[in-house]
Amino acid sequence: MGETPRSEMFDDVYFSAENGAEETRHVFLDGNNLPAAWQGKRRFAIGETGFGTGLNFLLAWELFDRTAESGAFLDFVSVEKYPLTPEAIREGLSPWAERLQPYLGRMLAQYPMRVPGFHRMVFDQRVALTLIFDDANAALPEIEGSVDAWFLDGFTPAKNPDMWTRGVFNEMARLSHSGATFATFTAAGFVKRGLREAGFTVEKRKGFGPKRDMLAGFFEGAEMRDAASPKTVHILGAGLAGCSAAYVLRQYGIEAVLHDPHGIAAGASGNPVGIVNPRLSAFRTPESDFYTAAFAQAGRTLPSLGAGYVQCGALHIAVDEEKDARFARAAENWGWGNQMRRLAPQEASEIAGVAIDKNALFLPGAAQVDPAALCRAYARGFDVEVGAAPEGAVVLLANGAAAARGLPIHTVRGQITLVRANAQSAKIKTNIGYGGYISAPVNGLHAVGATFQKWMTEMAARDEDDTANLKKLEEHIAGLGLSEIAGHRAALRTASQDRFPVIGEMDGRYVSTAHGSHGIASTLAGAHAIADMLRGGIRSLGKSTLKKLAPQRFEERESRKSAKKA
Ligand code: SAM
Known about the structure:
Blueprint: E1 6-7, E2 12-13, H1 20-29, E3 43-49, H2 55-67, E4 73-80, H3 86-92, H4 103-110, E5 117-123, E6 127-133, H5 136-139, E7 147-152, H6 166-175, E8 176-184, H7 189-197, E9 200-206, E10 213-219, E11 232-236, H8 240-251, E12 255-259, E13 274-276, H9 286-301, E14 314-317, H10 321-333, E15 341-343, H11 345-352, E16 360-363, E17 367-369, H12 371-379, E18 384-385, E19 395-397, E20 409-420, E21 431-433, E22 437-438, E23 445-449, H13 463-476, E24 485-496, E25 502-506, E26 509-513, H14 519-535, H15 543-549, H16 553-565
The protein binds S-adenosylmethionine.
S-adenosylmethionine binds next to α2 and β4.
């Protein structure tokens, strides 16, 4: 039997190695009247404080699998301030390794990079896990959705009072509908009072094993509204936004038909090399949280799709002092730990494989992929039609600038240049950014890009753009001597006025566009967000982030401006 996992910081155990599974059943499952509570429901949501090893999640999933009706869907949303490594989880759960298979293996295969914010995993078209790596007090206000049952599982309140706050109880109430239940192992007086004040009816029950009491109860509030999710969605646009949406919707049991007069990946998504990268900013904001979630999601989703995915990292050269300062702040504020490292020139050069004479920011989890092949991999097994969507269909607009419908979005022309690697450049081990970028070599070629021409719609590749791409490269990484151009491609990306994607619902249609230069990761995260809106489940992203993504934001900004003037 493994050792009981213990937290040094809180001087408390995660659960008892002897009977942790029994305790979960008694306190959280029985305490919330499961499985009876989910019978007859198409959708059920559990909220948890303190994910730890995921033992509670895994046992709830196993029970749901055994007892819920076919077609029923479980949302499990959990917060965790100090995420464990996958190795620590495996070790901690070793007493139940056999019992928890195949669930444990599937969870660990998708377990997110340990960076702050929202992380969505989907299993078997039937279970969505939303893991939020943050303090419970910061994470709960960001959850959007409706919860049916709560597992309150922090460490003992006396040792971990920060997790048992009025703010946490009030957020639980906000997310609960009438009849929602909760259960917790503790019977601490201030927890009981806090839950009562927040509107829960609280009763003492017999605790587990030697513990005399525990608490359980329910919420009286507004009735839940529950709309059925559509069976099929018609997606206009078969680029990254559309193809990733088809692929992701199917994970939730929603079918899709793609519509594109030009076929798969005809536009900006058709480039042969793309870099999976977040858009970097100095502070942690709702926008940076989007790129963090999207980047982590791409990192655990894309490797299994093939499409030339190579996790070779990305090195961002601090080309001037302002950039250097911004990178320093990003590394400090984003909370990515060793997934975002500031490097001096010497170390940057070692990682790059060629001489870099400035500081840099290195993202070891960044990758390159073939976006056109990725679109095809996403779209495998879906119909792609050239005609329009049928009348009355549920529609997702994923067709770039054509999705504008009055929104302030525009195109930005980008040309990439493919150059043949030489002896010197073949040493490049990672993607390198400097305003432009050069990819690590793939099949003896580097992609060098990309121009940024907001005013131009010329689709043919231009020689002067190749020259500009290579000149910029030479300015920042001297002495590569790359000159043998092997190809090029120009396309129009779509961007919005505030340079952030547009993802949400608008006039009865759904939209995912304006992914700009970060579309590989951002379209994938957008696809999960759209899936949640369609099915009415717990959202895969935080409330503040979704607000920044919403198509309504431009109008709201305008009306705020005119209110100020008046
Ligand atoms: N449910 C877990 C399981 O199945 O393994 C056990 C949870 S353990 C008793 C409590 C968890 O709460 C720990 O993983 C701890 O890191 C986390 N935690 C402590 N303080 C927190 C806070 N303020 N916000 C979010 N999580 C916190």
